[in-house]
Amino acid sequence: MTWSDYLPAWPLQISPALWLALTLVVAVLLGEALVRHLRLPRIVGYIGIGALLGPGGLGLIPQLPVNEWRLVVDLALGILLFELGSKVNLRWLKANPWLAGTSLLEAITTFGAVFSVLVWFDVTSTAAAVVATIAIATSPAIIVRTVTESRAQGQVTDRLLLMTALNTIYAVIFHKLTVAVMHGQAGTSFVHTIFPPLYLLGGSALLAWLFGVTFERIHHHLGQHEETFSFILFGMIAFATIMASTLRLSPILVLLAAGLITRYQRKHTRTFPPHFGSAGAVLVVLMFIANGLAADLRGLQDGFLLVLLLIVVRIIAKLSAVLPLATHSGIGWRQAISLGIALVPMSSVALLLTLDTAIDFPEFAFGLGMVLMSWIVILELAGPILVQVALRRAGETPEKKA
Amino acid sequence: MSLMPFAPSRPLSIGVELELQLLSCNDYNLASSAPEILRRVAKRTHPGEIKPEMTRSMIEINTSVQQDYAGLVAELRALRDVVSDAGRFLNVAVAGGGTHPFQHWSEQKISDAPRFHYLSELYGYLAKQFTIFGQHVHLGCPGPDEALHLMHMLSRYIPHFIALSASSPFVQGHDTGFASARLNSVFSFPLSGRAPFVLRWNDFEKFFAKMAGTGVVESMKDFYWDIRPKPEFGTIEVRVCDTPLTVEIAAAIACYIQAMSRYIMVEQRMAPEEDDYLVYTFNRFQACRFGLEGVFIDPRTHQQRSIREDIMEMLEHISDHARELHAVEAMERIREILIVGNGTSWQRRAYASEHNLADVMQLQAELWMGN
């Protein structure tokens, strides 16, 4: 027998999973310390630590293999999107049509404002349109996580969830359509310009519908065993997410629509644990760390003014769409301002849409893509704080215990 | 501070106040949506009044002065519809029932008005614990002495009203075993219980002046009695009922009290005695704990029977009076409760089939809103 039979070979062969585990421990520890000290929402800590220690910051955590991370991000986002969808009551739109009006107006003004600024900065109109569609979406991840963490409840919270779900759907659909236009301009044949968005939207809708039907069946038999059911649900979400990627559909659309469909069909109330259990919660935390690690602020070097202007214009657009219809839709001015501010965060959905565009159009990745990335990082860090303050201002978080 | 003079009112006229629960349509927990609901209903014309209550997940509807069941139930339905429509517009469900089955009192938010902030300061957590939902019935009285007479005579029948309206078995996620657990929250207030045995209005004024002199009370509002006189309306107010699960039951119980009052004033004409109160808290406890199955001890004959049997007999006594008051349909509804059970038995049946209190609350809201 020799040493090498029972001692590990040197240098150690470290698997990426070990880095993942270590990152989780370190990021959560540091994030928690930061959050307690500065009294910020926890996700700010996770994203912040990821950004600080990651390749874009001090470089202490090496860049992890993209595939592992992408799976984590997709799964966690799938969980959060399904969660968002299942908290949104689409029947409300029928009882209060002003909400649908507010939502459409908000999407249109956001698109219009961002598009105008970019065109003014000499961006081509197609590229400007792609970025403007991405800017429509409020971050479902940040909204769901912050609402869960702050235990907010009330009109602003309900509307925030509804409008986030809707503007995410608009963003994905119109993003796919404008990308198709971009392909058309790049010389792709008519059939191959028209077919991709149709396949993607139709296929995603079909997969979401199948999910909804299966969900209802299983819930019928197992709904009373809440814990068992949440295990199955977790599996179903993972399956649907991976299936959507495999079929080259939109996981974002599939999971969000699946959540909305199950909520629309439901006859009984359902209470799931946040993120469908602790496994889901861990994935969500990892996703925010991953977003932090991916943070890329290089776009600020050349485009600082543009990013700043885009941030400001987008906030004004969201606010000015929510305010005029506020009283008609049944909330007061204070609440409307809170709602407008809370719609500001951008995160994973915008990030994924940007990355998708960058894969198809490499020149986008180095131009506007960089601007968009910096924009997302800033609103990812500021977003949770804005949402928390807005919901507290609206009086929708639990009162402090004296 | 002295007591207001007893205002004139039409004898046996009735008015009903109902405290309602506002619920989130997502999880059917209480939702602090009263400010938005109130703002919304202010734009609509409706009879009666819609007002805020102690915490922001409660709302109160008040009818105007009514004479009979038909008028009362029509107005209550109109009020229910206005509030329900506002609820649908705001994604808020509205329900009856005396307690919310799984709310946490500490999460409730005190309504923004000086009186509610004052009460919250004074009573501390009791104010938030007071997120319970009751029905109050006002009865017009010909004069102040008659009001006191009626108040003491009706006290004997308090268990009837509790058992018929009981709809609060669940508190903080559990079945308490009580038919009306709501009243347990009322009893923790220092000035709850019953009015002193005083039969003349000027004696009552002296009692009030003495109490006010000690600084314990400022107005009649500070007494949380089961029945109390309301001099500014010229009424007595029965306050022991849980908010029933439908407006029709609420109206029927109000008319049961009305018909009984007519029986007491026109036919029975017995003088109240202080010893009537010997069995008062025992009977009331039996009604809260066991509902219609509770034991009822007659204070004069000491005979024991179930509350259900006592109500059955009372329905016989008052049937002519009910006919005079156009309340025959209301008495039918009371009889129906004796057969199919009160709100509490409905809630327990719903829980037995749904296994989930949120689902019970969803069904309860559907029952109330009528959709």
TrEMBL record, chain A:
GO terms for biological process: proton transmembrane transport. GO terms for molecular function: antiporter activity. Coiled coil: none annotated. It is a multi-pass membrane protein. GO terms for cellular component: membrane. The chain crosses the membrane at residues 12-31, 43-63, 98-121, 127-148, 160-182, 194-215, 227-243, 276-297, 303-325, 337-359, 365-391. Keywords: Membrane, Transmembrane, Transmembrane helix. It holds the Pfam family Na_H_Exchanger. Residues 26-354 form the Cation/H+ exchanger transmembrane domain. This is Transporter (CPA2 family).
UniProtKB/TrEMBL annotation, chain B:
One of its GO terms (biological process) is modified amino acid biosynthetic process. The lineage of its organism: Bacteria, Pseudomonadati, Pseudomonadota, Betaproteobacteria, Nitrosomonadales. It catalyses: L-cysteine + L-glutamate + ATP = gamma-L-glutamyl-L-cysteine + ADP + phosphate + H(+). Its EC number is 6.3.2.2. It comes from the Bacteria. Belongs to the glutamate--cysteine ligase type 2 family. YbdK subfamily. Pfam families: GCS2. HAMAP family: Glu_cys_ligase_2. This is Putative glutamate--cysteine ligase 2. GO terms for molecular function: ATP binding; glutamate-cysteine ligase activity. ATP-dependent carboxylate-amine ligase which exhibits weak glutamate--cysteine ligase activity. Keywords: ATP-binding, Ligase, Nucleotide-binding. It is an enzyme of class 6 (ligase). It comes from Nitrosospira multiformis. InterPro entries: GCL_type2/YbdK_subfam (IPR050141), GCS2 (IPR006336), Gln_synth/guanido_kin_cat_dom (IPR014746), YbdK (IPR011793).
